[in-house]
Each structure stands twice: as C-alpha cells, then as structure tokens.
Write a structure and sequence with these properties.
- Helices cover 41% and strands 14% of the residues.
- With 259 residues, the protein is an alpha/beta fold.
- The protein has a seven-stranded mixed β-sheet, sandwiched between helices.
- A hairpin with a 2-residue loop joins strand 3 and strand 4 (79-82).
- The radius of gyration is 17 Å and the shape is globular.
C-alpha cells in the first residue's frame, strides 16, 4: 500500500507546488515508485516536472469516473502524474451525495498498491478537493512562507484537520510546518518561526528543523523542465530541500515498514 503525503495550505504563494515537486523528484531519485497528483486547478505540478499536458485526461476525469485511473496517468522523468487544469475549479463534485469525501480514494484505489509514495498537491483553499486529499493521506506537510500574512488562516486549517481526523481519517499525521523563503538574519523570519511553533503545537506537530531559503533556481527550474535537484544542485534552496528530505525520511520510512 502506498504512503500518501499531502502538501497543503489554504494560502497561495507559500511553496506548495515547489515542495510537492521536490518530494516527487527527490523520492524518485532514491529509487522509489512515485505518483504525483495535482489537485490545484492552476495545474502547475505537471509543468514543474516537465510533463505539461501530455494527456487528454485529468485527475477530474478520474474522480468523476470518466476514465479509469490507469488511462489518465502521465509518465514523466520523475514518475507518474495525474495532471489537472482549470476545469477542476468548477468540478461539479459537490453534486455527489454519498462518500463525497472519499472520491479521490476510490478513484485511485486500483493503483495504490503499485506505488511506494503518492504525493498530492492541493489548491489554495479548504474545499472538497482538500478534504479528499486529507481523507486519503497518511501524512500532511504544511509549507508556510516566512511572513506574517502566512500565519493568517492557520486556525481554520487546524479546524479542517481536526474535522477530518474525527470524521474520515483518524490516522492523518501532520508531519510538520515547513518554513519557506526563510532568512534567519531577519527579525521577521525569527518572529514567524516563533509563532509558527506555537501554531504547530496546537495541531500536535512541529516546525521542521530544515528551513527553505529563497533561491532563484527554485523559480528557474520549471522553465527548463527540470527538477530543482538536477537544475542547480549548488543552490542554497536546493540544498535545503535535500536536507528536508533527509529530515523526514526516517519518519515516512517507519510508516513504510509498519504497513
């Protein structure tokens, strides 16, 4: 059975897609079988991994039962993907009345035993798509930019996590908050780190030891169709993501062994 990791924050521009792509390409580099799922209508995950829109079918087609999951898979250099596009923003899934929180789980169930890891990139919202991701996941990672506005709304995220845990997925483990665009020399970043730690404690989690610094390589890599690790491994931000993978590795491997 796959280990499923969701990357989520209802605020945009905090590094969700970059973190999802880093997880996918990083795990693939370690020899793992990986499936990436893009639940963001902006559809940027496929672009970040050099897949574009190579398939006529999207994750929405799979969730609505238009095509089986194996026919919608897009092969890229770093594993398989279920891509998305703007149609996901007006998806019509709200019209489904039974098991609506498990639409994604039921849709991908035929391939869940094939992959070691499934990584889900979510939209900047707390909606039915997000709940579906939480309901099927083992782990949740919350990227958060190192600014005050990124702290706003985490209380609502806490409520959503608690609701999913109590109603749909008691095993959902919030792995931690990942601070991005972090500059340890600024007072702002240090203040955000302190407040993020307080918020993490409220959801029985922590702020990761690894912080992601700003780096132009992170923005440039998708334009070249490469992962951040192959594009510029000397970048400080890329080194941070490698350290992040090392940090979480033991925890997700323990889950892997216990399954």
């Amino acid at each position: 059975m796959s280990i499923i990791i969701t990357v989520s924050n209802q605020k945009g521009g905090v590094g969700k897609t970059t973190t999802s792509a880093a997880l996918i390409s990083g795990l693939y580099r370690e020899g793992k079988r990986v499936l990436g799922i893009d639940l963001d209508p902006q559809g940027n995950l496929g672009f970040c991994l050099g897949a574009g829109m190579a398939s006529p079918h999207t994750v929405l087609d799979v969730m609505k039962g238009v095509v089986p999951v194996h026919k919608a898979l897009v092969r890229c250099e770093y594993g398989d993907l279920l891509v998305s596009d703007i149609t996901l923003s007006t998806n019509g899934l709200d019209g489904i009345r039974t098991n609506r929180e498990f639409i994604l789980r039921d849709a991908i169930k035929p391939v869940m035993d094939f992959y070691d890891y499934i990584v889900i990139d979510t939209p900047p919202a707390l909606n039915l798509l997000t709940v579906n991701a939480y309901s099927v996941s083992n782990f949740l990672i919350i990227p958060m930019a190192s600014d005050i506005l990124s702290l706003v709304g985490l209380a609502q995220l806490k409520e959503t996590i608690e609701s999913v845990r109590s109603s749909f997925n008691p095993g959902l483990n919030v792995l931690g908050i990942l601070l991005t665009r972090f500059n340890p020399r600024t007072l702002l970043s240090r203040d955000v780190l302190e407040m993020a730690g307080q918020l993490a404690a409220q959801i029985h989690s922590r702020v990761f030891d690894t912080k992601i610094r700003s780096g132009v390589a992170i923005a440039e890599a998708p334009a070249h169709g490469e992962s951040i690790f192959s594009y510029n491994p000397r970048s400080a931000a890329v080194k941070d993501y490698l350290a992040f993978l090392d940090e979480i590795g033991p925890e997700i491997q323990l889950k892997e062994v216990s399954q």
